[in-house]
Specification:
Blueprint lengths: L1 H51 L15 H29 L5 H27 L4 H29 L4 H18 L1 H4 L6 E7 L2 E7 L1 H26 L5 H27 L4 H26 L1 H10 L2
Antiparallel strand pairs: 1-2
Helix pairs in contact: 2-3, 2-9, 3-4, 4-8, 5-7, 5-8, 7-8, 8-9, 9-10
Length: about 300
């Protein structure tokens, strides 16, 4: 009887020890991933500062009078578009935060990064009355992380739903990585052209700027990083045992390149009227987050109904 109790105790101890090891392993992965994300975000600042000794200036003296359409765009983006996509982001986080599925956890990380960047940028603007180079970088990096984790969720969903066999996914990932390598040379051919102006919107002084450092990140650092990630994704796709790595690398390359091209395109289109640059940047955010919310509603409606039921 005593021997049987000892066996039972040993089994319970081994089980609790395994659970503890799994929890510690998860915490270590989260800690290491967070450190890698923060280090990658700080890397362009360190590289640029080491090469030039500073990040440039964040003050401008040129003045530009806004017209009625500029004022309407500002009001629409600040009062309608931005609050709407931030509320959608919070709603998606509340729906997914305790789900074990990797796509759900990736989306929670992505939208948390987006909201963190928005809040930090807003706090800096409230304190200094204008954007700073570093705060704009943090804001941009939050959006880039949102793209990255959304891409991770998408590729993980595709893997699990449509192509669980690695032999079917490998050619797709290799082909997409090859296309990404070619496309990454597009932003590398762009010459950064810093610019901006001060304006007065309803009696409130406002600075619109495309700082040289931020454009260097978009036209040099991000495309080069995307090239590296696409190359890693391509070679990882050739090995069936590294498909999960290929998926992460492909997500990183796709998100960084997409963010780079979007920002540079908007900057070229609205170089003289940067209020419209910011308006369409906010609109793209709303489109991306609305798409995620719509797909979540169509693919996993039970997750939404379960969460709504808690508040009844």
């Amino acid at each position: 009887m005593v021997h049987g109790n000892n066996i039972k105790v040993n089994k319970q101890f081994k089980k609790s020890h395994c659970v503890y090891n799994r929890r510690m392993s998860t915490r270590n992965r989260i800690a290491s991933s967070t450190f890698a994300i923060l280090l990658f975000g700080a890397l362009p600042i360190l590289v640029y500062f080491a090469a030039r000794g500073n990040l440039g200036v964040s003050t401008l003296t040129s003045l530009q009078a806004p017209n009625a359409s500029d004022q309407a765009a500002l009001i629409a983006s600040l009062i309608v578009v931005k609050p709407l996509y931030m509320l959608l982001s919070v709603a998606i986080i509340l729906i997914l935060f305790d789900r074990a599925a990797f796509p759900a956890r990736a989306l929670v990380w992505g939208f948390t990064a987006l909201l963190s960047g928005e809040l930090i940028c807003g706090a800096v603007f409230s304190a200094f009355g204008r954007e700073l180079i570093v705060s704009e970088h943090i804001h941009s990096y939050g959006m880039a992380l949102e793209y990255f984790f959304s891409a991770c969720a998408f590729f993980a969903f595709v893997d699990g739903r449509f192509a669980p066999d690695p032999k079917r996914v490998r050619p797709l990932y290799a082909f997409a990585s090859g296309l990404g390598i070619l496309a990454a040379f597009l932003p590398l051919s762009v010459n950064p052209t810093p610019g901006g102006y001060q304006t007065d919107l309803y009696g409130f002084p406002y600075l619109y700027a495309r700082f040289e450092f931020n454009q260097w990140v978009e036209s040099r650092f991000l495309p080069i990083a995307a090239l590296i990630f696409f190359g890693l994704a391509f070679f990882s796709a050739l090995n069936s045992t590294r498909m999960s790595l290929s998926r992460v690398f492909l997500s990183a390359g796709t998100s960084l390149l997409a963010f780079s091209i979007i920002r540079l395109s908007l900057g070229a289109l609205f170089a003289e009227r940067l209020v419209w640059f910011e308006f369409w940047e906010e609109m793209i955010q709303l489109l991306v987050i609305s798409t995620v919310a719509f797909l979540l509603w169509r693919v996993k409606p039970e997750w939404i109904t379960d969460r709504v039921a808690l508040f009844r």
